[in-house]
Amino acid sequence: MLKKKLKGFSVIELVMAAAIFSIFSISITLAVLQGSTAIQSGIRAELARQWAMEGIEAARAVRAQSFDKLQNTPGSGMQFNDGKWEFSGMQDEKDGYVRIISVQSAQRNADGNIVDHDGTDDADLKRITATVTRDTFSLDFSTYLSRREVVLIAP
């Protein structure tokens, strides 16, 4: 009678297969989690950008009402009342984000160029900065608004 050897997996082969499967599974899980975290960070950054731009546009709307309403302030919030924007409070808070709008007189040097410091205040030009923060994330947008409206005429 012929004896037939049964072939199967040895214990070492089973342990090796389990280890390879575990490494593969953990790698896939980490890749998915990192992708999800990156997407969430991108969404948070986009929300902050949109809210900062809303603050800049709100300040532009205040300027359209009257340039003299753009008073220098290190920080203010924005509020929409009776169909118009106005400065209100020290800051705005929404969904864990904090927005601060600052208004400063712009400065010019002797050549008439806009400078950050060591210049002369220009009474007809304001620098508007919208800062949005959440936890350790911070985003700033700045623009200049003039007393005189600039009109571009296409040729």
Verbal overview:
- The chain is α+β, with helices and mostly antiparallel strands and 155 residues long.
- The termini are far apart.
- Helices cover 35% and strands 36% of the residues.
- The protein is elongated, with a radius of gyration of 30 Å.
- The protein has one helix and seven strands.
- Strands 1, 2, 3, 4, 5, 6 and 7 form a seven-stranded antiparallel beta sheet that branches.
- The longest helix is centred in the N-terminal third of the chain and has 55 residues, at 11-65.
- The chain has one domain (11-146).
How do you describe this structure in short?
The chain has one helix at 11-65, and strands at residues 73-81, 84-88, 92-94, 97-108, 114-115, 120-134, 137-146. The chain is an alpha+beta fold.
Measured distance between first and last alpha carbons: 104 Å
Overall number of domains: 1
Question: Helix and strand succession?
Answer: HEEEEEEE
Total helical segments: 1
Beta-strand portion reads 35-45%
What class, by secondary structure content? alpha+beta
Largest sheet: 7 strands, antiparallel
- The radius of gyration over CA amounts to 30 Å
Instruction: Please count the beta strands (DSSP E, at least 2 residues each).
Output: 7
User: What's the overall average pLDDT, rounded?
Assistant: 86
Uncertain spans, ≥5 residues at pLDDT below 50?
none
How would you sum up the global shape?
Answer: elongated
Tell me roughly what share of residues is in helical segments.
25-40%
